[in-house]
């Protein structure tokens, strides 16, 4: 594991952006695993700027996102599909039909989960997976529980996750209570994993996840076993 501590969110975003940019330059047909939330916003801005400056070409890239709320379609401005379109896809030249986000509105969510895993497999797996980390140690929406779940699955969101994500919604009651998330299997199978975390509030969970015991009660702790993991933390 490479654990990098930086001084600021700007530095974190620049570094994470450069790592993803190098991946795309080295392998233009990369499969990028992407995340939503506050942490990657600066990274996506860095990538959008690099594209604008003519330094990056995403025309052969495919993306697979980690998760989506159940019940929110892509037109809902709180959905993760909407977030990705707004904050990254509309600002770069990735073909929209090569951007994938789980469908949280599928009538058969079990079938949707199986479809998503089959899609990732058909793409040959993920070259580089970008992750944030929840205050309870979740990655994607793999919440703390007694076991790690390998496959894409539907999860009931932890009360602390609902609380943390309420800041994006009009009220806490508007936060969906469940989501579809990529499982630990596809994340651990990614050739490279890049986890970014920002702020003092994440200090305890970073300590537990990367220097504590490996346990499904801290889902991110499994990443300690990943052969090519980079963690960037801006404590500020
Ligand atoms: C988002 C995701 C989540 C977030 C995590 C941290 O797609 O999978 O695991 O990465 O909740 O969120 P922020 O970055 O908002 O602190």
Question: Can you put this structure into words, describing what you see?
Answer:
The mean pLDDT is 97. The chain has one domain: Rossmann fold (3-Layer(aba) Sandwich). By secondary structure, it is an alpha/beta fold. It is built from seven helices and ten strands. The strands form two sheets. A seven-stranded parallel beta sheet has the order 1-10-9-6-2-3-5. Strands 4-8-7 form a three-stranded antiparallel beta sheet, with helices on one face. It has helices at 9-26, 41-52, 80-87, 109-122, 159-165, 184-189, 203-211, and strands at residues 2-6, 31-34, 62-65, 67-69, 99-100, 128-131, 153-156, 178-181, 192-198, 229-234. Strand 2 (31-34), helix 2 (41-52) and strand 3 (62-65) form a beta-alpha-beta unit. The radius of gyration is 16 Å and the shape is globular. The structure holds fructose -6-phosphate (F6R). Fructose -6-phosphate is lined by residues 35-39, 66-67, 132-134, 138-141.
């Amino acid at each position: 594991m490479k654990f990098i501590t930086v001084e600021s969110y700007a530095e974190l975003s620049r570094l994470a952006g450069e790592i993803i940019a190098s991946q795309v330059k080295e392998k233009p047909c990369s499969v990028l695993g992407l995340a939503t939330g506050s942490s990657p916003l600066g990274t996506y801005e860095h990538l959008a700027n690099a594209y604008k400056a003519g330094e990056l070409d995403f025309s052969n890239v495919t993306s697979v996102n980690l998760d989506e709320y159940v019940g929110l379609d892509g037109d809902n401005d709180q959905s993760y599909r909407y977030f990705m379109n707004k904050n990254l896809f509309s600002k770069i030249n990735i073909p929209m039909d090569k951007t994938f986000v789980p469908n949280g509105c599928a009538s058969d969510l079990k079938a949707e989960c199986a479809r998503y895993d089959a899609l990732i497999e058909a793409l040959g797996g993920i070259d580089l997976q970008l992750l944030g980390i929840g205050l309870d140690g979740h990655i994607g929406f793999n919440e703390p529980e007694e076991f790690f779940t390998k496959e894409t699955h539907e999860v009931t969101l932890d009360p602390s996750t609902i609380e943390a994500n309420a800041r994006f919604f009009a009220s806490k009651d508007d936060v969906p209570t469940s989501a579809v998330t990529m499982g630990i299997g596809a994340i651990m199978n990614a050739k490279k994993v890049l986890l970014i975390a920002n702020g003092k509030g994440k200090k305890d969970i970073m300590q537990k996840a990367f220097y504590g015991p490996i346990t499904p009660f801290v889902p991110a702790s499994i990443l300690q076993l990943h052969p090519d993991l980079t963690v960037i933390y801006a404590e500020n």
